[in-house]
Amino acid sequence: MKPIKALAEKFILNFLAVFVGIQLAKHWLDLGRWDFTHFTLMTCLMAAIAVTIVDVWRYWKSI
Predict the structure, then answer these.
(1) 27-62 pLDDT tens trace
(2) Angle, to 10 degrees, between the axis of helix 36-62 and the axis of helix 2-28?
(3) Residue 46 sits in which domain range?
(4) Could you give the CA distance from residue 29 to residue 7 in angstroms, rounded to a whole number?
(5) How many Å apart are CA 16 and CA 33, to the nearest integer?
(6) Residues 6 or more apart from 54 whose CB is under 8 A from it?
(7) Is 4 a residue whose pLDDT tops 70?
(8) pLDDT-based confidence at 16, cuts 50/70/90?
(9) What is the number of domains present in the chain?
(10) What is the C-alpha to C-alpha distance for residues 15 and 44, in angstroms, rounded to an integer?
(11) Spatial distance between the Cα atoms of 3 and 22, rounded to a whole number of angstroms
């Protein structure tokens, strides 16, 4: 149960880190009329899932 809680916390932290990064990039780059709400949420979700999968793989290899 403990690894599941740790992975959930890691997923949330990864999601927030990517979300903040994209929000900052949105202000620094003038990309016009993109639908940033949908783009940002989907990108954050995919990045958080990818990083969490890598974390699970590293944890599995370390056992």
Answers:
(1) 655 555 556 666 777 777 777 777 777 777 777 777
(2) 140
(3) 2-62
(4) 32
(5) 24
(6) none
(7) yes
(8) confident
(9) 1
(10) 5
(11) 28
| 22 — pLDDT class (breaks 50, 70, 90) | confident
Q: How many Cβ atoms are within 10 Å of 62's Cβ, its own excluded?
A: 6
pTM of the model: 0.50
User: 């890598």: which residue's tokens?
Assistant: 54
- DSSP structure string for the chain: -HHHHHHHHHHHHHHHHHHHHHHHHHHHS---S--HHHHHHHHHHHHHHHHHHHHHHHHHHH-
Residue with tokens 């969490």: 52
Written as one letter, the residue type at 7 is: L
